[in-house]
Amino acid sequence: MEGYQIPAHIGFIMDGNGRWAKKRGMPRNFGHTKGAEVFKKTINWCRELGVSCATFYAFSTENWKRPADEIEGIMNLLRRYIKDIRAAAKEDIRIIILGDIAPLAEDIRLELVDIMESTRSNTGFIVGIALNYGGRDEITRAARILARKAADGEIDAEQICEDSIERLLYTSEMPKLDMIIRPSGEQRLSNFLIWQAAYAEFVFMDVLWPDFDKNALVSAITAYSQRNRRFGGI
Ligand code: FPP
């Protein structure tokens, strides 16, 4: 995309899997399976277009309210994709998991910790996967850490600044979030990267996530490139 501004970091809300499956008379997990394939392809499209980091909302702190079989389906998809995620290390991709993975099944948790550690020095591309992630939870966690440090006398509460919080977010080693893409027609953040989104551009699209393709990504980046980002200036 010569001549276009390319966002360094894009957040993807992978929404619409359930509706996509329903339209085909299939169970919701069929949509998640297709959605996971699109997740994998989107990483390659982002790389081809010169984006350096992409974060995907795979499971929110609120998604535990879903039926057990749907949760199990998403976790099994994750198990299946862990192999692919591992292979990503060979392509110089760093994986960062955002969220509290403590409640996940032990086999998944151990694999994820290992993948994060073994890809830590990769610099070609960063993939963020938000799992049991909530933006409010992320900020609360940072507040708790700072409060504890202040109580222990390690820091002075008056010195706490925006940077002190930023450094404790899951995104601290990622480029600044430039854009959030939400397909499926919904126009809200749903607790995704709420701190990081302060100056991000939002692109809402009518396509359902399993139908998201490279053309959709190109049109979102085109829209981004045409926006005039002033960051509060004039
Ligand atoms: C939202 O669509 C989607 C989810 C809650 C799950 C997304 C998860 C995946 C695509 C699988 C992740 C796997 C890997 C390997 C990262 P929805 O179910 O809310 O759709 P609806 O609004 O149409 O019901």
What Rg, in angstroms, do the CA atoms define?
18 Å
As a percent range, the share of strand residues is: 15-25%
Low-confidence stretches: none
* Percentage of residues assigned to helices: 40-55%
Distance between the termini: 27 Å
Biggest sheet layout: 6 strands, parallel
Structural class given helices, strands, pairing?
alpha/beta
Q: Mean pLDDT across all residues, rounded?
A: 95
List the defining traits of the structure above.
234 residues, alpha/beta, 6-stranded parallel β-sheet, 7 helices, 6 strands, globular, binds farnesyl diphosphate
Topology:
Blueprint: E1 9-13, H1 17-23, H2 28-49, E2 53-60, H3 68-87, E3 93-98, H4 106-118, E4 125-133, H5 135-151, H6 162-166, E5 179-182, E6 201-204, H7 214-226
Parallel strand pairs: 1-2, 1-5, 2-4, 3-4, 5-6
Helix pairs in contact: 1-2, 2-3, 3-4
The chain binds farnesyl diphosphate (FPP).
The site of farnesyl diphosphate has 20 residues, from helix 1, helix 2, strand 2 and helix 3.
Describe this structure in words.
The protein is α/β, with parallel strands linked by helices. Strand 3 (93-98), helix 4 (106-118) and strand 4 form a beta-alpha-beta unit. It has 7 helices and 6 strands; from the N terminus they run βααβαβαβααββα. The mean pLDDT is 95. Farnesyl diphosphate (FPP) binds at residues 14-19, 28, 32, 35-36, 39, 56, 58, 63, 74, 77-78, 81, 129, 184.
Concise synopsis of the structure shown:
The protein has 234 residues and is of the alpha/beta class. Helices cover 41% and strands 15% of the residues.
